[in-house]
Each structure stands twice: as C-alpha cells, then as structure tokens.
C-alpha cells in the first residue's frame, strides 16, 4: 500500500523536510511524564521546564539531533532501601520536542527538581538575491547533463 504524501504537489518543491517533521511529531512521546511547561522569554527566547523531582543532574541527559530535542532520565534503584509504601516513581523516561528550524539550545539548568532548557531563535534577516539569466544555445544533450553536474556539486 502506498502512502499518501501531504507534499505531492509540485508547488511544494523542496519541502520534503516538512513531511519528515510531521513523521517525527507523530512518533514523539504522548506520555504525560514528566510534566513540562513551555514559556516565551522575550521576542526570541523560549524555556522548556520539566518537573523531574527525585532526579539529579547526573541522572539526566539532554541532547539535540537535527531539530529534535530529547531529554532522558534514568534512576538506579537503591536496593538497600526497604519501602513500606512507594508512591514516588523512579522510572526512566524519554521526552522529545521537535523544534522549528533555526532554534538553538542556549543552556540547561537544574534547580529544585526542575530542569530548565533555554532556547533561542536567532533573528533571521531576509536576503534578496538577484539571479542572472544567461542566454545560450545549449543542445538537448547538454541540457540533460546539467542535473548530473548539479548532483556532482552537492555530493562533494
């Protein structure tokens, strides 16, 4: 069975990364642990705050791959403790956030059981680029060779 793509239209040329983004969003964890907040900080800043009570900074891992921010937590069970009631979970977790292109992690801080991850979106300046149009008398064979030359340029 073939999969229907949202970006099949020729008007969406070069937008295949958005399709991958939609796939990442659908695969990201929908589990509610740990709870988190997302705040806007000024015009170009964000903060993700995760409630990770019981975890220490050594038990947490924050990583960024492409445009996906992943926070992992793992606690080792203390086998010497005997619990009469255990209501505080010590389970491991993985929470992922898909970030817009250009957003960068500026810092991560841990304070009072809260992990704060600060993000910035650098201000993007629009650029206008003039494309020169060249006139030539290329043959059909030469026109067909152009895509191969473009591929060679990007493969290097």
Brief summary of the model shown:
By secondary structure, the protein is α+β, with helices and mostly antiparallel strands. It has helices at residues 16-27, 140-155; strands spanning 36-41, 45-51, 60-65, 68-73, 93-98, 104-111, 114-120.
Per CATH, the class of one domain reads Mainly Beta
Structural class: alpha+beta
**What fraction of residues sit in β-strands?**
25-35%
Q: Report the end-to-end length measured between terminal Cα atoms.
A: 36 Å
Helix-strand pattern, N to C? Answer: HEEEEEEEH
Tell me, briefly, the overall form: elongated
Per-chain topology:
Layout: H1 16-27, E1 36-41, E2 45-51, E3 60-65, E4 68-73, E5 93-98, E6 104-111, E7 114-120, H2 140-155
Antiparallel strand pairs: 1-2, 2-7, 3-4, 4-5, 6-7
What does this structure look like?
The chain is an alpha+beta fold. It has a domain at 33-123: Immunoglobulin-like, CATH 2.60.40. It is 18% helix and 29% strand. The protein has 2 helices and 7 strands; from the N terminus they run αβββββββα. The strands form 2 sheets. A 4-stranded antiparallel β-sheet has the order 1-2-7-6, with no helix packed on it. Strands 3-4-5 form a 3-stranded antiparallel β-sheet, with helices on one face. Strand 1 and strand 2 (45-51) form a beta hairpin.
Give the tags:
elongated; 156 residues; single chain; 7 strands; 2 helices; alpha+beta
